[in-house]
Amino acid sequence: MVIGVPKEIKNNENRVALTPAGVTELRKHGHTVYVQVNAGVSSGFEDAEYIAAGAQMLPTIEEVYGIAEMIMKVKEPIAQEYDLIKENQLLFTYFHFASSEELTRAMLAKGAVCLAYETVERPDRSLPLLVPMSEVAGRMAVQEGAKYLEKPLKGRGILLGGVPGVKPGNVLILGGGIVGTQAAKMAAGLGAHVTIMDVSLARLRYLSDIMPPNVQTMMSNEYNIREMIKVSDLIIGAVLIPGAKAPHLITRDMLKLMRAGTVLVDVAVDQGGCIETCHPTTHEDPTFIIDDVVHYCVANMPGAVPYTSTVALTNATLPYALQLANKGWQQACRDNMDLRLGLNVVEGKVLYQGVAEAFGLPLTDVNSVLTREAELA
Ligand SMILES: NC(=O)c1ccc[n+]([C@@H]2O[C@H](COP(=O)([O-])OP(=O)(O)OC[C@H]3O[C@@H](n4cnc5c(N)ncnc54)[C@H](O)[C@@H]3O)[C@@H](O)[C@H]2O)c1
């Protein structure tokens, strides 16, 4: 298959969909890989590394879209890319269709095959192409929180790990899923005193078994939250209710209970946030202060560490990309249910229920499309 990797052009997107290691793997299976000049530079991968791995470099985005059967990207195409997309071209990237009717209608009109990273799903209902970004954000939450606890950045002036003779800082984590677990590991590693709250007792039991002794678990409820925020230095919001807006576990009035210089990192801000006073911020201006409490609410935290994020993402996407390239999307989706669930928009039809419901569009059964493709083959 001919695979194309364009340079991302969405504002502040520094990741790239394929590393030189990924090029080597695809080449080993007999595929041809075209990479746009400078596509990997912001993630730390030079053109020379892609060439050494067997990629062919193309100077413009038009040439990459023009030649490729499968486009591998990170972010959804933006308006200036729509016209570059060809009928039947396979696009393997994050789309988040349900949040953009314009994008959905543009891809329907183009007749492209849109396989969305975010809806590829394992039989245990986990989302293997979203997990790596949650892992990055969870670990970063502690790094950023520790930084903003410094006095010049308006924090309490506390070193999370303390020093001999001085007690460590207290970290409260709301939600013990992927983000919360990774955050807890980092905070515990720094020597902080960590509390994870979740509504799932089974999850708390598991975390209690695997976490080091400086991590304790607590049931998440309003009473416990009100008690714990009085003594916490860093509070990390990491809850998720799939398909719903995050619940406001920390309300405006609760800020008064916190000590001045407490730092809030609301990782769940991309789902509306679990702290009422949070609103999305950017890496250029990541924080704001309300009632002397520092709020950090960057909606795309992994964007600040593009090298780590690119490698983490491509570690997860490459096995699927190989299946798509080796078998073609039709056979790969017939053989692999994970990938089949990633099909959102195919040749002018919506195949994903959430997208059809979001915009009142007709839903086509994915199996009927795959059967028809088999008959045509
Ligand atoms: N800002 C960013 O850059 C960024 C990056 C990655 C992920 N995220 C977001 O981080 C959030 C967490 O993602 P995840 O992958 O860890 O999800 P996850 O599903 O693995 O974990 C969510 C956890 O929240 C728990 N929960 C639900 N309601 C709760 C409540 N009332 N109190 C306490 N816990 C509750 C669930 O039981 C679950 O354990 C999501 O909103 C995700 O979109 C943001």
Short description:
InterPro entries: Ala_DH, Ala_DH/PNT_CS2, AlaDH/PNT_CS1, AlaDH/PNT_N, AlaDH/PNT_NAD(H)-bd, NAD(P)-bd_dom_sf. The longest helix has 30 residues. The protein has 13 helices and 15 strands.
List the helices and strands and how they pair.
Blueprint: E1 2-5, H1 20-28, E2 32-36, H2 47-52, E3 56-58, H3 61-67, E4 70-72, H4 79-82, E5 90-93, H5 101-110, E6 113-116, H6 131-148, E7 170-174, H7 178-190, E8 193-198, H8 201-210, E9 215-219, H9 222-229, E10 234-237, E11 263-266, E12 287-290, E13 293-296, H10 306-335, H11 337-340, E14 343-346, E15 349-350, H12 353-359, H13 366-376
Parallel strand pairs: 1-2, 1-4, 2-3, 4-5, 5-6, 7-8, 7-10, 8-9, 10-11, 11-13
Antiparallel strand pairs: 6-14, 12-13, 14-15
Helix pairs in contact: 6-7, 10-13
This protein binds nicotinamide-adenine-dinucleotide (NAD).
